[in-house]
Amino acid sequence: MKIYTGRGDEGMTDLQDMSRVSKTSPRIEAYGTVDEVNALVGSVRPTGYDDIDEKLERIQNHLHIVQADFANPDPEDDDPVIAEAHVEEVESYIDDVEEELEPLQSFILPGGGDSGAKLHHARAVSRRAERRAVALATDQSVNEQAIQYLNRLSDALFVFARLVNQRDGVPEESPTY
Asked: What are the subcellular locations of this protein (predicted)?
């Protein structure tokens, strides 16, 4: 597979169905932002905690499915798509992590140790990816499960950040108003 083709030099790119769209189209913005989240999640691994790293690896694979889902305006039965099971898996991660965390008492400032701060950054970008997906869904066909997945993902990344910081002994800071 050749890395460069020159097909995108004019500002256009191919979707899964081989239709050509502008690189600024809402569909490209949506899956491009998901790619950014995936890269950020990859930058935090390894966190030093095998249980978190295993979950993050699964999430990275899910994010590839989200990208494929968004890149395909008319998926066929055998095409990769995010399903309810993917959303439920992330929900189970959140539930598991919350059992170890102290209950949240107030808003917290994003940050902490290196891994915690990177997870907070990934969370913020996952929120942007969700907004891009919602914008895409205003006038184009989008798998609603993929949007739900991105919504749950930001929550998961938030609790992962809290947990990594807690395990690292980094205290949470509340904003001052």
From this structure: Cytoplasm
Tokens describing residue 141 = 């066909």
Amino acid of residue 153: L
Residues in the chain: 177
What is the predicted pLDDT for the residue at 14? 77
Residue type, 108: I
Q: Which domains does the chain have, with CATH numbers?
A: 22-168 (1.20.1200.10)
Mean predicted lDDT score pLDDT of the chain: 94
Q: Which value, to the nearest 10 degrees, does the dihedral of the CA atoms of residues 94, 99, 105, 111 take?
A: -60
The DSSP secondary structure of 79-121, one letter per residue, reads S----HHHHHHHHHHHHHHHHHSPPP-S---S--SHHHHHHHH
